[in-house]
């Protein structure tokens, strides 16, 4: 499936857990696209199994069966998730390599942060909310949504920058160690 690339990976994101519009382009890394496609395949297999069980229960004339109700519920859930994944894949736009300013954190960037208070390094990749929800990242890096508090604070930062993330009663200080496109 050929997808258009974004000329720039700079976006304005609202602090909202779900897409504001289901027609907006969905920026994804190549790995994120692969994870979404794999999730769709898993859901389609789950749906097919639920359909098989529903059919078996109906043929056995057990319409009042708890197994039938559970299978119908599983089928409904799988179909809803398939619709959501198909929508995301239809809106997918691959992030252009080095689409942003080199050395500046943007969608798709691999970043190493230092949690200043704990002295711990945190490898992460800055991704869209849909990609972060699709599954774990590769190479041990956590997938951090650009819409999360850390992700919003990280956008546009460079190696050496320090920033504080305020989570209500908790403030956490980070230092950017590296940014790779």
UniProtKB/TrEMBL annotation:
Domain Transcription elongation factor GreA/GreB C-terminal: 103-180
Domain of life: Bacteria
Database matches in InterPro entries: GreA/GreB_C_sf, TF_GreA/GreB_CS, Tscrpt_elong_fac_GreA/B_C, Tscrpt_elong_fac_GreA/B_fam, Tscrpt_elong_fac_GreA/B_N, Tscrpt_elong_fac_GreA/B_N_sf
GO biological process: DNA-templated transcription elongation; regulation of DNA-templated transcription elongation
Transcription regulation keyword on record: yes
PANTHER family associated with the record: TRANSCRIPTION ELONGATION FACTOR GREA
Coiled coil: 33-95
Organism, scientific name: Deinococcus wulumuqiensis
GO molecular function: DNA binding; RNA polymerase binding; translation elongation factor activity
Keyword vocabulary terms for this entry: Coiled coil, Elongation factor, Protein biosynthesis, Transcription, Transcription regulation
Protein name, per record: Transcription elongation factor
Domain Transcription elongation factor GreA/GreB N-terminal: 27-93
Cleavable signal peptide: none
Family recorded in the similarity comment: Belongs to the GreA/GreB family.
């Amino acid at each position: 499936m050929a997808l258009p690339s974004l000329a720039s990976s700079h976006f304005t994101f609202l602090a909202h857990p779900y897409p504001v519009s289901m027609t907006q382009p969905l920026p994804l890394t190549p790995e994120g696209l692969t994870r979404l496609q794999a999730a769709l395949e898993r859901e389609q297999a789950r749906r097919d199994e639920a359909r098989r069980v529903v059919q078996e229960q109906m043929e056995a004339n057990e319409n009042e069966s708890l197994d039938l109700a559970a299978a119908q519920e599983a089928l409904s859930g799988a179909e809803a998730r398939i619709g959501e994944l198909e929508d995301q894949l239809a809106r997918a736009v691959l992030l252009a390599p080095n689409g942003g300013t080199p050395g500046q954190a943007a969608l798709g960037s691999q970043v190493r942060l230092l949690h200043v208070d704990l002295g711990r390094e945190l490898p992460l990749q800055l991704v869209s909310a849909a990609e972060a929800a699709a599954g774990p990242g590769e190479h041990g890096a956590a997938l951090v949504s650009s819409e999360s508090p850390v992700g919003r604070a990280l956008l546009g930062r460079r190696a050496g920058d320090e920033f504080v993330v305020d989570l209500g009663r908790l403030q956490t200080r980070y230092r950017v160690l590296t940014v790779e496109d």
